[in-house]
Amino acid sequence: AQRSPDGVLPFVGGLAGMLGFELAYDLDQIHAPRPAARTPALWVGDYPCAALYNHDSARWYLVGDSQSGAWARLSAALHAPARARGATAPGAARLQMVRPEADPDEAYRQGVCASIGAIVERGDLFEINYAERFEAPWRAGGLALYEAMRAHATGDHFAWLDTPSFSICSVSPEQFIEVDEG
Prior knowledge:
β6 (159-162) and β7 form a beta hairpin. The protein has 5 helices and 7 strands, in the order ββαβββααααββ. 26% of the residues lie in helices and 19% in strands. The chain starts with a strand and ends in a 12-residue tail after the last strand. The chain is α+β, with helices and mostly antiparallel strands. A 3-stranded mixed beta sheet has the order 1-5-4. It has a two-stranded antiparallel ribbon with strand order 2-3. The protein has a two-stranded antiparallel ribbon with strand order 6-7.
C-alpha cells in the first residue's frame, strides 16, 4: 500500500456507513412483512483512514490520518501475505450459497406477488429492485472475503465495511452523499 497522491482518491477520513434495505420500513408505509435483519437499518462510523484500491493503477492506497492506530492496522493487513489473510482459503472461489427460508421458492413467489400488488393494485411503488438473502459459511475474515469477491466478480465498485459488531462486503456500493467545496 502507498500513500495516496493528493487529490487522486476520494476519501480523506471521516464518516462512512450504510443504509440497509430495511430502513425503508422506518421511512415509509411498507405493505409487506418486515424481514429479519442481522445488521442495523442505518449505521455510520467515524473512520480516520481507509484503504482504497485503484483499478487503473492496480494499487492499494492508504488515505487519511497516518498517525492513527487504524492506519497501522490497515497497513499491516494489506502488507500481510494473501495466505495469511485467508484469501486463498479452501473454497474461497466457490462458496456454497443457500437461501435461509424453509421454502425459498414459496418465499420468493410471495415476495414477487407482494411487489406486483404494491405497484398494480395499490400504486405504492413504480419500480422494485427485488432482492433475496443468500447465506454461506465463511471463516477466513472480512478482508479475505472482500478479496475473494473482488477476484471473482465483475464491477467497478466494491466495498468492505468493518464495524465492531458486523462486517459487510459489497460488490455494488453506492455513494449517496458527497461534500463539495467544504
